[in-house]
Amino acid sequence: STRPLTAVVVGGGIGGLAACVALRRVGVDAHVYERATALRANAGTGIALWPNGVKALRAIGGDVAREVESRGAVIGGVKMGVVDEEKDAAAEDASSSSSSSSSSFKSALGKVAASALGRALPLLMRARHGAGLVCVRWAEAQAALASFLPAHVVHLDASVDAIDVIERADGSESVRVTFARRDGSAYVPGAGEGLTMMTAGDDAATLHAVHADVLVGADGINSAVRAGVLGDGAPRDNGRVIWRGVVDARDVSDLGSDSSYPEFCPRGATALSASKDSAVGRTTCYMDVSSKDGKLYWAAGCLDAGITEVTPETTTTENTNGRGGYERSRCAATFASYPDVLRCLDATADDALYVSRVLDRPPLFPASSQTEKFAGPVTLLGDAAHPVIPSFGQGANLALEDAVELAVALAPFATVAVDADASSSSSSARNEALKATLRAWETTRLTRTSEAQIASFISGSKSYGEEKLKSAMADAGIDEAALRAHREKFPDANATQEYLISWSPSCGVATTLPELNPKAAMALAMRAASARKCDAEKLSDDVMGRRAACVGVGAAIGAGVFSPSPPPRAAAASVPKPEYETSIVTSTTTYAGDGFRMTLPVGWTTAEQPGVSQSRVALFDASGAKAATIFLEPTASMANKGLASLFADATDFGLKAAGRRNGSLAAARNGSADGVYIAEGTNARGDAPWVEMIAVGCRSGENAKKFNLSQTIRVASEASVGVGVGSAEVLDGLRAVMESFELTAGASCEASR
Prior knowledge:
By secondary structure, this protein is an alpha+beta fold. The chain is built from 20 helices and 30 strands. 32% of the residues lie in helices and 23% in strands.
């Protein structure tokens, strides 16, 4: 009688993947469609996650925040400086003839003071805002977010071809999106992608389309969704080039030093500089983006006016991707007086050197969401809505905020009634409420993001002078009234920075998204697990990360990778070979599993069968007949509440799960150990008993605790266990097994730390 709200998220970057994870954690069946043929494994970009971005990840889930943080570096020091190139050149000439002990002392004293301030800033930030600064490679952040999604909800090689808002028979609206592959062929949706068929017929538009209740454009600054919604043309070029890459820190560390990181950017630090001559506008950025792996991100930017152009005679051999000789030579010539940049440039391979121009768009102000262009169940997120010049390093952070707030807004709509007798007026009213919620969300977000866009533009345009700045502002769509209002509110960059990083989610810092709508989130995970088997080849191993492909809230019931037929009953003297491809048979009286154990009656044996989304252990009685199956499935228990996040009590488990599966419920009780429910009853015909047990616990090992690898353990009797000679003894033995069950790694990974 109900189904989940469905959403198509276009764009598999940081914002798109975060939105998909966030929406699914409130029960919205969101899928990501990305035009690339693979998620990036080596994008030469680093991102800084400021306190607002870290708090956004925590709101999605503590497990998500920990995973992203584990792949990056927690910053404990910040180095900032201004480079006076003319003065440095003069000082270098003077030092060749004479030296001043006084100036050397002042320089050393200044470095000590700057170093102390740099170490204090992250501590003050953490104390004031409840979160610090984390730097991470863009590709690693992308991989971390993707690892929290079932493989079947991330669709690659899918570029937007057409978007249509269509009207259902009940008067409500939905979105129909068609995609194309890079070879020009149509992207044909697979099973489960178009969960709500809005139209009838077999026309190509219907067969090749994905249908959803909501469309989210998270496809970056050149957004195809934005083009369809606003049609406001190409982004604006800001006249700045950035060269960047990621290198091994040890390759640029100082000669003779014991440190594996260079002095200009130590381990756990970030270093920023800007040229004093703003007309040239040279900037540098260095970030430790993986303390564990020793990776250092570097970026060197310059206004077009400050670039030193090179001639073919001075250009090294250029490789086929265009990022080799010419761009390497331009960067080297432009930053010839920056030895740290040259050192990083030399350590960067041609195919790992990235160059890009800085682009932005006019701000979308709050009133924009109330225009006729923003209509229907379509919205924009991240750079598709509000691209910013990287003056404050807030692009990814604002996208993460968007993802959280969109999930908060849509949580009340996560469950859709599909009763046949539902009136068209109620469906239409609900649809209007959904669209009004999207418009309100856009208004709230644009109030904040427009300020970020204006502030970033001002900071990135300091070299213009007042008159040129006015002209540039007009070109950027920022009128004098908006600029004046912004400056009154934020008199300097420090005020803007404080405003940006002090954000907290509207659901509160102590609340995570799964807690907003736990029933809908659980229902979605159960639906996904039972509707489609995991396809482990859908994403590469590094993208899937350290997590099973079908992690979901409550994905403990009803899913199976295979359905082997039970082995036939044999004579008491023999133990049949289980019908599994691989098996391990034991005859001990204690079975120790991954994070749990139970005592078996003498003569009982087990056979293990690992799986992708579900593993099984067959349990055989002393006669060799199969008595029960132990199902082991990954689950992300809501707010680390363990079994309580799935069922209120043992009776709830018996009525809603075990009884529905097996027939009728006769009794339900708690097991001898905490966090164990047991239910018993008879089959639908009333001629055979059944017994079933369930528990939720952490898997064993440090990684399980670190990455919240919780699992559901379910022990279910075979249909024939209570029938025939000796059945009572087998049933009693099975009850004893369940009563002996105990979790050895804790009821939740959080509790076991």
